[in-house]
């Protein structure tokens, strides 16, 4: 997000001393939906048991746990049907040969939306993107909106897209899909648009022209579309492979650690790596300097504010 001290431009990125990555695409710590559910239920159980000890505690979710868990269960029960629907949509789109842009959606309660964007909700962001698409995208193109893998507010999402599409006269040029991977959808597209999701890094890996509406650690020249994001529709350019490789090496050298939240060995690795990173000399120096993050000015201009930097 805009709070990161990671380099903001290609020149600073390429000047970093990094260790060259020699990794394979093998997943070291595979997770599972079952593990996510079990950890979530355990979290809820201990919150309930110790609730009286912390009377001022507020859960991070915007909805009640009953609503969230009910939504997850319903989405799980409908997963097979939604996959089939997504397969049909994807097959028809490929057969038609219609050129399209991909918009990777984020969850409405995601803190990247709540705290790191000027949008009141993901639905407001959808309306603005569809309005921009209607005004700027070439005729004959389509906007494909991909829901988040953990999405369960399907009716609200569909309603928001239909209403925005009607409002801006592109009802026949937008399509929501609940399935398929970023790789499958992004590679054949004209480009991928995201608010500030990490899905953008995945698109860059596949050489897909990518645009971030808001500042992110990978939003820099040589990687993503620069300038006014509304010009992306007609001037999308792919990332530079050497810059992307340097970006990945820099992530591993500076701010990222190996691990996973949803795998026992991965969680142990993540905890150890995070502790070592926080206690490293470079991070200690950053804390002492209290330097404003390099993306803060851009974030302010786009309507993102943080009280502690006011």
Distance between the termini: 17 Å
CATH topological fold name of one domain = Rossmann fold
DSSP helical segment count = 13
Q: What is the chains' assembly state?
A: single chain
Q: What CATH architecture of one domain do you see?
A: 3-Layer(aba) Sandwich
* Whole-number mean pLDDT: 90
Helix-strand topology string = HHHHEHHEHEHEHEHHHH
Shape, please?
globular
Poorly predicted regions are none
Largest sheet: 5 strands, parallel
Please give the CATH class of one domain.
Alpha Beta
Model description:
- The chain has a domain at 63-258: Rossmann fold.
- Helices cover 46% and strands 7% of the residues.
- The chain is built from 13 helices and 5 strands.
- It has a 5-stranded parallel beta sheet, with helices on both faces.
- Helix 6 runs parallel beside helix 7 (154-167).
- It starts with 9 loop residues before the first helix and ends in a 9-residue tail after the last helix.
Please summarize what this structure is:
The protein contains 13 helices and five strands. It is of the alpha/beta class.
Protein traits:
310 residues; 5 strands; alpha/beta; 5-stranded parallel sheet
Write the layout of secondary structure elements.
Elements: H1 10-15, H2 33-49, H3 65-77, H4 79-96, E1 100-104, H5 111-114, H6 122-136, E2 142-146, H7 154-167, E3 174-177, H8 182-186, E4 191-194, H9 199-205, E5 210-212, H10 241-254, H11 264-278, H12 281-289, H13 296-301
């Amino acid at each position: 997000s805009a709070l990161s001290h990671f380099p903001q431009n290609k020149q600073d990125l390429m000047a970093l001393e990094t260790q060259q990555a020699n990794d394979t695409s093998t997943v070291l710590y595979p997770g599972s939906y079952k593990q996510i559910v079990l950890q979530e239920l355990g979290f809820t159980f201990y919150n309930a048991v110790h609730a009286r000890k912390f009377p001022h505690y507020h859960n991070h979710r915007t909805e009640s746990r009953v609503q969230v868990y009910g939504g997850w269960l319903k989405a799980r029960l409908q997963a097979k049907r939604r996959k089939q629907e997504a397969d049909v949509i994807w097959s028809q789109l490929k057969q038609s040969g219609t050129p399209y842009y991909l918009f990777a959606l984020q969850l409405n309660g995601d803190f990247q939306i709540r705290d790191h964007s000027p949008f009141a909700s993901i639905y407001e962001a959808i309306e603005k993107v569809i309005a921009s698409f209607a005004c700027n995208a070439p005729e004959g193109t389509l906007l494909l909106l991909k829901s988040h893998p953990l999405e369960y507010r399907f009716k609200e999402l569909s309603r928001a897209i239909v209403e925005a599409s009607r409002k801006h006269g592109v009802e026949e040029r937008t399509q929501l899909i609940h399935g398929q991977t970023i790789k499958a959808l992004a590679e054949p597209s004209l480009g991928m648009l995201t608010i500030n999701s990490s899905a953008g890094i995945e698109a860059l890996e596949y050489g897909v022209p990518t645009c971030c509406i808001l500042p992110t650690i990978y939003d820099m020249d040589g990687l993503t579309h620069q300038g006014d994001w509304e010009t992306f529709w007609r001037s999308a350019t792919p990332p530079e492979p050497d810059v992307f490789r340097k970006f990945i090496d820099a992530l591993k050298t500076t701010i990222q650690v190996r691990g996973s939240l949803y795998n026992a060995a991965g969680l142990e690795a993540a905890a150890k790596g995070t502790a070592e990173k926080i206690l490293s000399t470079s991070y200690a120096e950053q804390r002492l300097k209290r330097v404003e993050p390099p993306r803060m000015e851009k974030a302010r201009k786009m309507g993102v504010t943080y009280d502690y930097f006011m």
